[in-house]
């Protein structure tokens, strides 16, 4: 009677984001500044952090060199100074374009570093050495080495910058005549006054880019770590539940197999002894086989729900059809026990709920009716009540059977707990019926509440009430 199907491969989760966004889509949360950074430095999803940082460095150095060239022209500095800054501008632009287009930024990083080290040597000599502004740029060169290189390469390049600066200071001290001084003190002041803020701004922008990219990388890493941790916890929890489920299944199937073995032994003994056959042993074996089949079916259903392999569609369901289905299914069992199911008179407001028609009829409602029959005395009635609330419909299955103590109700859905019980006629239980019902009710977007009182707690007012709260609907689908 299980109408839901279990495909070989699980369908893709509806909650998982698409692996590729449409190329024309733009994240509404992304600022224009971020768009500019992507345009000028590269897409973070396609290039690594160092590649983007090198692009930023080359762009900044090109802009600084252009500014210095304009400054030298305005101040009327020597042609050699203009040539030095213009060459730096051109190299910065070429380096930026080369880094932006290439996939292997490391091929560009070292030659560019060596070139700018040589440019600083030339500028030191042509711009009055330590009395000029070239020393400020050695700080940027050191940042370049620290951020883009690691290990021995970083140490060697930092040592190269330090050795270059030391050598230039020694040359200036030993042979000051090799340096070209500023024409006037005013020219020197203008150069320093303009270059110092320019270097400070460039350094601040550079540090900001590096820090922002670092924060982005760390945030991405933290998110991935969180996802991995959650997935690990989910897998571990699933494994524990599988182990508990296996333990329960083995226990219950072992009980049923024991019944089968005992009755088979009695049947063989009766055959050898020529004794009259007692057909009650066949009934007990039939019960045991049904019990094993029910356990296997319930486990398959639970596994299908948990793994997302169970396919069904939530749509309007007519409760009248669900009730008629139960009347037909349980007619023989009810007659054998002299029991009745009292169904309510449904109205247009109460007859329709949201769910899968076949699953709601067979795996949900029929499970509840079967339990109510199993744990009720002969001659008693089972009552079904339906009420409409705000956006939801409550379906109650009420019996006046043997009931359950409060401690058993509290652990009905605990995989570690033993909740299997024998019915009033000795029928074996599986402990999976209510768990299966709850799994489907949860998937339908509803809730399930169980209230019970045992005969030991009250001799006159005992039994169990199971309440399903499902989303209401105005249209209906027949489960047949």
Instruction: Please state roughly what percent of the residues sit in beta strands, choosing from under 5%, 5-15%, 15-25%, 25-35%, 35-45% or over 45%.
Output: 5-15%
Helix and strand pattern:
HHHHHHHHEHHEEHEEHHEE
What gross morphology would you assign?
elongated
Q: Helix tally?
A: 13
Chain-averaged pLDDT: 77
Structural class: alpha+beta
Radius of gyration: 41 Å
Q: How many domains would you count in the coordinates?
A: 2
Q: How much helical structure, as a percent, in the residues?
A: 55-70%
Strand order, biggest sheet? 2-4-5-7-6
**Major sheet description:** 5 strands, mixed
Number of strands: 7
End-to-end C-alpha gap: 11 Å
Q: Which segments are poorly predicted (pLDDT under 50) over 5 or more consecutive residues?
A: 1-29
Written overview of the protein:
By secondary structure, this protein is an alpha+beta fold. Helix content is 60%, strand content 9%. The chain has 2 domains: 32-228, no CATH class; 314-480, Histidine kinase-like ATPase, C-terminal domain (Heat Shock Protein 90, 2-Layer Sandwich), CATH 3.30.565. The protein has helices at 32-41, 49-75, 79-101, 106-126, 134-148, 151-174, 185-273, 280-306, 319-329, 331-337, 357-374, 406-410, 433-443; strands at 315-318, 340-342, 352-355, 381-388, 392-399, 447-453, 463-471. The strands form 2 sheets. Strands 2-4-5-7-6 form a 5-stranded mixed beta sheet, with helices on one face. β4 and β5 (392-399) form a beta hairpin. The longest helix is centred in the middle third of the chain and has 89 residues, at 185-273. It is elongated and about 130 Å long.
